[in-house]
Input
Amino acid sequence: MGIYENQVLPRIIDVSCGAKFLDPVRERACAGLNGRVVEIGFGSGRNVPFYPAEVKSVSAVEPVGLGWRMASERIAASTVPVERSGLDGQALPFADNSFESALSTWTLCTIPDVRAALSEIRRVLAPGGTFHFVEHGLAPDPGVQVWQHRLNPVQKTLFGGCHLDRDIRGLIEDAGFEVRAVDQFYEKGTPRFMGALSLGVAASA
Output
């Protein structure tokens, strides 16, 4: 990765995904996390304040060193132990059945091989473990989807491979998860082609 990907893009993502109006969405995504948690796309640690008391530890997977450094104050203030434990969500360095919960927020849009990442998450979750997620992706309305498909090449170029039109629920189900609950909605104050969110919990079969 070059200077833009390592130094500029993490700051852009921190500002855009760290907006205060997204805090309630993050809190909803983190609700119900428990035990040992693996979080892919940890970024600058914006989820740290919302970890429930039932969380024992968090293994953070984050490829960009700047993101981890930007998270230092949040990690220091956390009552939950957080350790940077991996760099690539497509190849998690953990044994099978290592975690009770997994978390992904605005991450599945960018991972190059999203199917491999979901397969890895399922592998490292213990039987009955839960995968908590909030992701932007394919909108429910065909008219919005048209613009997502048109703008996707630009989005990928400007935002480090981020896709506008991934079918989040479909990808999760195809990976062998059972989606227990999902709320699909447009985030207020965000253009619809970027703000079609899927927030939910899936179980590892």
